[in-house]
Structures are given as C-alpha cells and as structure tokens.
Write a structure and sequence with these properties.
Blueprint (H helix, E strand, L loop, with lengths): L8 H13 L1 H13 L3 H29 L3 H9 L1
C-alpha cells in the first residue's frame, strides 16, 4: 500500500499549527495578554515560544520522520 503524503508544505504546516493550537487558545489569548500587561506580557511570551516551543516542535517532527511509526512506537524506540 502506498504511503500518503501532504500535497504541499504549507498545508502540512497549517494543519500542524491548527492541531497544536486549538480554537480555545486562540479565543483566550487576547484576554490573557490584556490581563497581564499587554506588550509587557507579549514580548517574553514570544521569546519563550521561540526558545522552547519551536525547538520541541522540530524535535517531535524529526522523531516522527526518522522512525516512520506511530507516536508510541517512536518514543519507545528512543527509550531503548
């Protein structure tokens, strides 16, 4: 059986972001920014996302690509 692939890189990126973020976080984020100081909250938040979130996302995608298995099998093979 042939393995399915994404038709475009942009489609894959948008689907990944959509599944990771979720509608609840998009709905709640402006309230959190306003309640915690606006720009004073937004700048450290974006720095934290760049320092922690993006490298972890790249690591997870690399693990998935290198193993080519399910999530449980991929993390099980790393543990060994």
């Amino acid at each position: 059986m042939a393995r399915e692939e994404w038709s475009s890189t942009l489609g894959f990126i948008l689907a990944s972001i959509g599944s990771a973020v979720g509608i609840g976080n998009i709905w709640r984020f402006p309230y959190i920014v306003g309640a915690n100081g606006g720009g004073a909250f937004l700048i450290p938040f974006l720095i934290a996302v760049c320092l922690f979130g993006l490298p972890l996302m790249v690591l997870e995608l690399a693990i998935g690509r290198s193993t080519g298995t399910s999530v449980v099998s991929a993390f099980g093979s790393i543990r060994q």
